Amino acid sequence: MTIAPAKPVRTRFAPSPTGYLHLGGARTALYSWAFARHFGGTFVLRIEDTDLERSTPAAVQAIIDGMQWLGLNHDEGPFYQMQRMDRYREVVAQMLKEGTAYLCYSSPEEVEAMRERMRAAGEKPRYDGTWRPEPGKTLPAIPADRKPVVRFKNPLDGDVTWDDVVKGTITISNKELDDLVIARPDGTPTYNFCVAVDDWDMGITHVLRGDDHVNNTPRQINILRAIGAPLPLYGHLPMILGADGEKLSKRHGAVSVMDYPAQGYLPEAMLNYLARLGWSHGDDEVFSMEQFCEWFNLDHLTRSAAQFNNEKLAWLNNHYIKQADNQRLADLAMPHMIDDGANFEGAPALPVVLGLMKERVNTINELADAAMLFYREPKPDAALLAQHLTDAVKPALAQFAERCKTVEWTKEALSAMMKEVLAANGLKMPQMAMPLRLIVTGQLQTPAIDSVLQIFGREVILSRLAKFL
Ligand code: GLU
Hey, what's the signal peptide range on this chain (predicted)? Predict the structure, then answer.
């Protein structure tokens, strides 16, 4: 039983727009979104675009597209860090004034030399505090023509401890932490500082993110404390591994969320899959996002790394395809089928066809491929035809064709009529169904033959049969 937070919940997803929306990022976004929904809170989208070399507008768009496809709608933002520079400078100035940050005139070469010395002495390399003001300390003379960086005055002693909602209590000694550069010589702020200021300004109460950020958290906590900001709760989600136990990468296939619609996955399957990848609710495997938001209170997050399992995702996709409205499936399958040269003129209605075929497919692309049999001219293979359309079967098929002219065009009536023709000719079902399938669709594998006949309609069936009888 989780006790409701005292303050309204505010979560954020804060991607760096340097590529596509990765599956791990999508899971982080999903959890942050669902947790905000669980408590009727606010979900903020923040674009961390200060790495000018690696950030691109296309990557921002890719993130927004991915979130939109998944339906992870944000309530506030997107806020762009590059548009918040004045605010960061303001906080830097304030910190300098209050003495929680200081100007450091050590050159990059000097800093490197310091680190080298420490490494040689077997210590952890860090800034040695040359320019760190302390009571009674005289600072060196300011070198001419050198622009300073601004360093955060990290506490020298004590620990930083937080109760990570995923990993449990984490403690890092301040001795491990450097006096972090928070602004460069040109005044631009640095990463951890921007994140801390943003989380403060945006009133973030819960930070969920990948565990590659665990090392940043004590630095951000110290900065938040120094600027008098309340601390959010942190939860670091373990990474996602491929089936081989290695960190999920392109080698394992698609890692970009937007590859999945292209491969014919439904967003509800992906959401359901990602929800379970790092969290559980008893044995529940299939659930809606409404249900997930109701359950997701940060209990039962998995501590160990999750393994991505394509088969399970495919199984869920099959489930959601079966549940999906046929018209929606038609809208999704249609572009693939057009690409494959489908001819929809005078052909059966696509939603009806997809309704018949959706049981057995794992993706929309497979569904589109399967449905093509209704939308292209059948070209039965001559050898197969010779094998199945035997002299023993031909008269029965001719009778069948004759009765097709008048039979009531329902599945039931067609099926009953076929049985009568089979009985009258002493044949078994496959003996007639196989050549019929070949003639009507060009293939031996189809859904139930009575359904196929019914869907094609009398005219098409009669004209196709007429070509071979
Ligand atoms: N921008 C960071 C990333 O994309 C996330 C930062 C955070 O969530 O605090 O990995």
Answer: none
Q: Locate tokens 């762009």: which residue? A: 80
Q: What are phi and psi of 240, to 5 degrees?
A: -100, 130
pLDDT in tens, 163-215: 999 999 999 999 999 999 999 999 999 999 999 999 999 999 999 999 999 99
Return the CATH class of domain 1-79+238-323. alpha beta
Question: Distance (Å, rounded) from C-alpha 248 to C-alpha 22?
Answer: 10
Q: Which CATH architecture has domain 86-159+172-183?
A: Alpha-Beta Complex (3.90)
Q: Residue 331 corresponds to which amino acid?
A: D
Tell which residue, 250, 316, 289, has the closest CA to residue 20.
Answer: 250
Residue written as tokens 């499936």?
A: 329
User: What's the rounded mean pLDDT across residues 235-250?
Assistant: 90
Sequential DSSP letters for 33-61: HHHHHHTT-EEEEEE----TTT--HHHHH
- Beta carbon of 209 within 6 Å of any ligand 1 atom: yes
**How far is residue 383's CA from residue 377's CA, in Å, rounded to a whole number?**
18
0.85 exceeded by pTM: yes
**247 among annotated binding-site residues:** no
Single out the catalytic residue among 97, 137, 250, 467: 250
**Can you give the residue ranges of every domain in the chain?**
1-79+238-323, 86-159+172-183, 325-374, 382-466
**Does any ligand 1 atom lie closer than 6 A to the CB of residue 179?**
no
Which CATH fold topology does 382-466 show? Arc Repressor Mutant, subunit A (1.10.10)
Peptide bond into 435 cis (omega under 30): no
Per-residue pLDDT tens over the stretch 356-413: 999 999 999 999 999 999 999 999 999 999 999 999 999 999 999 999 999 999 999 9
Out of 213, 234, 236, give the residue to mutate to test ligand 1, the one with the largest number of ligand atoms within 8 Å of its CB.
Answer: 213
| Ligand 1 neighbour 16 (Cβ under 6 A) | yes
Which residues sit opposite 101 in a β-bridge?
A: 152
Give, for ligand 1, the residue of 10, 11, 16, 219 to mutate: max count of ligand atoms closer than 8 Å to Cβ: 16
Tell the residue number behind the tokens 């506030």, with chain if given.
Answer: 76
In this prediction, residue 341 carries a pLDDT of 96
In the residue annotation, 250 being an active-site residue is answered as: yes
**Alpha carbon distance 165, 376 (integer Å):** 56
pLDDT higher than 70, residue 42: yes
Residue 3 has pLDDT above 70, yes or no: no
